[in-house]
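Handout, page 2. Input:
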Amino acid sequence: MHAAQVLNWSEGPKYVTVDDAPAPTENQVQLRVLAAGLHNVVRSRASGSHYTCGPLPHAPGIDCVGRDVATGQLYYCINMKPGFGTFADLVTVDKSVLHALPETVDPASFAGSVNPGMSSWLALTQRATNLPENYTVLILGVTSASGRLAVPVAKALGAGKVVGVARSEAALAGIADLDVSIVQKENIKDTDFSQVQADVVLDYVYGDLAMHALQTLDIQRPLQYISIGLLSRNEVTIPTALLRSRDITVRGSGPGAIPVRTIGQEMKKLVPAMAKWKLLDAHAVPLKDVEQAWADKSLASKGRLVFVP
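Output:
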């Protein structure tokens, strides 16, 4: 069969011929891969910089939508164990990491959306605590892939109001179910948070925008701030005076902050919920073109990049 493989950490994956996927045991299923997403973590693993990448040759891909070759059932699977990869014609996976999908799901869109959707789901279910009924969420970086999906995630998990912040007014206008939009000004300190009362902040940006929000939000009740991403590429220091003068709890959310077992349990709730939502647009590329597509930054504007065998 064909698959993508990384043979050198300094190069991208190659399209190669490999041995067929092993026959499944009674606790496994063999899937014919329909779509596998190129997420940031996939790139990180393929560069050798992620703790789950394992030795060379590396098989890229952590998740996919596929069809059981024996029964025809449609599934989503996710597995970050070293040596496992979904950029292939066939994968043999443990039943414990499979999640059944309805036939109404678009494989490419679903494969491109679950990973970015996980971030806000896990932040709100595992890193936020005792949120009030109909709580208000402020999303910094709401027009990013993860930020867009944080809107339906928050609504599904009980948020009564979602406020989103981003640079592009046009992009903000295209996000359904966003209750309040705030355009980030060129001079970040001109961005007005003075009328925003929130219970929890989901931050995909960090940097100066996060600092400005924490300093100027109208905090009338306890605020839980959760750092998820670093789109600003700008590290900052939170002054101790700020932490002592405002009722703010600061946490981070990511694989190191949440037990793997817990992530698996939450996936059983997230996947069926996402199967009912309008998800991100996806751009499907044949797996045989992985070498060219891997380095083509222009493809990002066409939607979430997924590979199809």
